[in-house]
Specification:
Helices cover 49% and strands 3% of the residues. By secondary structure, the chain is mostly helical. The structure holds heme C. The site of heme C (HEC) has 28 residues, from helix 4 and strand 2.
Length: 150
């Protein structure tokens, strides 16, 4: 009798609690899925690698006084598109045929060398800024530059 009463009054609660938990878990799942999609979709093209992030700071410290990350000339040319075919956009009348001012093909190794030697071109003189930089800083700044598109 007592057990029967308990069952009658108690039993129907379990499906309700069970359903509530199921709904809560499903809602949390939907929310989490949305967050994960946001996290993976939004910043993909924008997020810099750890190396490029360090390179951005190196750039601010050692290059930004003379170079923009756009196509606009500051003292030296804007470095957007440095590693794209044709190289960066140069001022009117200056043409290195898609190469560095010293005639080297533009690739990570030749840019690293250019940073260490500097040089004179038709625009002006770039000092050997790389001489004061560690190898890792040069690698990082090149990684950063390789992400700059025109
Ligand atoms: C004191 C100013 C100055 C600083 C600092 C400087 N540069 Fe330059 N850079 C120049 C000038 C001027 C030129 C253009 C030389 C020319 O073509 O006459 C140049 C040219 C270049 C070029 C060749 C672009 C081309 O024509 O393809 C690259 C690459 C470059 N700089 C990278 C850097 C990086 C990276 C840094 C920092 C680590 C840096 N520069 C720091 C002045 C500077």
């Amino acid at each position: 009798m007592c057990a029967g009463q308990w069952r009658l009054r108690g039993f129907p609660k379990w499906p309700i609690i069970g359903a509530s938990i199921a709904i809560a878990v499903a809602a949390a799942g939907v929310w989490l899925f949305g967050q994960l999609r946001l996290a993976s979709a939004a910043p993909l093209g924008v997020q810099l690698s750890a190396s490029a992030q360090r390179g951005q700071q190196v750039f601010q410290l050692h290059c930004a006084a003379c170079h923009n990350t756009s196509t606009h000339v500051k003292y030296g040319p804007g470095l957007a598109g440095l590693f794209e075919p044709g190289g960066p956009l140069l001022p009117d009348g200056v043409d290195y045929g898609g190469r560095l001012p010293n005639g080297q093909e533009i690739n990570p190794a030749s840019v690293a060398e250019w940073l260490r030697t500097g040089g004179r071109g038709q625009i002006g003189v770039m000092p050997p800024v790389g001489l004061g930089m560690r190898d890792t800083e040069i690698a990082d700044v090149i990684e950063f530059l390789s992400g700059l598109k025109q």
